Amino acid sequence: SSAAQVVHSAGRRFIVSPVPESRLKDQ
Amino acid sequence: AEDTGVRVELAEEDDGKKSSIALRLWVEDQKKLKGKYKDSGAIEFSFDLETEVPESIAQEMVDSGFFLEIDVKIVSKSIRDRVSLIKWRRQRIVSGCN
Fold first, then answer.
1. I need a labelling partner for B86 at 20 to 30 A (CA). Which of A17, B45, B50, B96 fits?
2. pLDDT of B9 strictly over 50
3. Average per-residue pLDDT in chain B?
4. What ipTM goes with this model?
5. B contacts of A16 (beta carbons < 8 Å)
6. Window 33-62 of B, Cβ < 8 Å to A
7. Could you give the CA distance from residue B16 to residue B28 in angstroms, rounded to a whole number?
8. Which residue has better confidence, A10 or A13?
9. CA dist list (Å): B61 to A8, B43, B69
């Protein structure tokens, strides 16, 4: 889904969200 | 900075004062990674310019399953390059003021 996902690791928070199409190189 | 295929940018405007900044990392070119990559999207995280090192962030991203161990160096280098640029810009602003 496109909602941001929060991952916790060693007390740090990673917020994962989709990368806008325009920011991706030839993937 | 070398194009590592991993992009790191400021996730918000740098006020030049706070030691803790918000960064956002994502893979632009997954062919540059050695390990199999699960497209996780953009990963936003905080980084303390005074107390933290890019290697520990990269290791935590590996531990969280975003990247494989084999790519920890490329991820930490990408973060280091961006952090160095931010520190350089801050010093330039400070010396400009002086």
1. A17
2. yes
3. 91
4. 0.82
5. 40-44
6. 40-46, 57, 60-61
7. 27
8. A13
9. 10, 9, 9
